[in-house]
Design goal:
Two copies of one chain form a homodimer. Chain A has 78 residues and is of the alpha+beta class. Chain A contains three helices and four strands, in the order βαβαββα. Chain A has one domain: Glutaredoxin.
């Protein structure tokens, strides 16, 4: 079972991508944990450390998949 | 059962994203068709019509998820 984290910031692009991704994931293969970086700002350095540069992003093991472009991580810091 | 098309051009970013996406998809919910736009150049206008602007991209129904950035569709035309 793989672990994945879906990082987002609640923006329309994020919500759309989240719905599509969560709808297509096979729960027998991947467990997806969702993190709202607009609310859990303490998780921004963690996401940055994994290589996340913008949201929405899906991190599977240590592989970062940036999905469309909702917001840059830098913008979430201010 | 949803239908999805994974557009790519064989670039390293594309191959990585393809492996990750195909590994997490639930075959009971989504059937993924893969199109290599570097080889099937006749499909470039189709992808463009769906709103694809870069590859790799996953199109689910009429929703386009651009994943990371491998190449712009314009560059595949030349």
């Amino acid at each position: 079972m793989k672990n994945a984290t879906f990082y987002h910031a609640g923006c329309p692009v994020c919500v759309n991508a989240e719905e599509e991704i969560l709808n297509l994931v096979d729960p027998r293969k991947v467990r997806v944990h969702t993190v709202h970086l607009g609310q859990s700002t303490d998780q921004i350095p963690v996401a940055e450390g994994l290589g996340v540069q913008s949201v929405p992003a899906l991190v599977i093991d240590d592989n970062v998949l940036h999905i469309n472009f909702g917001a840059a991580l830098e913008d979430l810091k201010s």
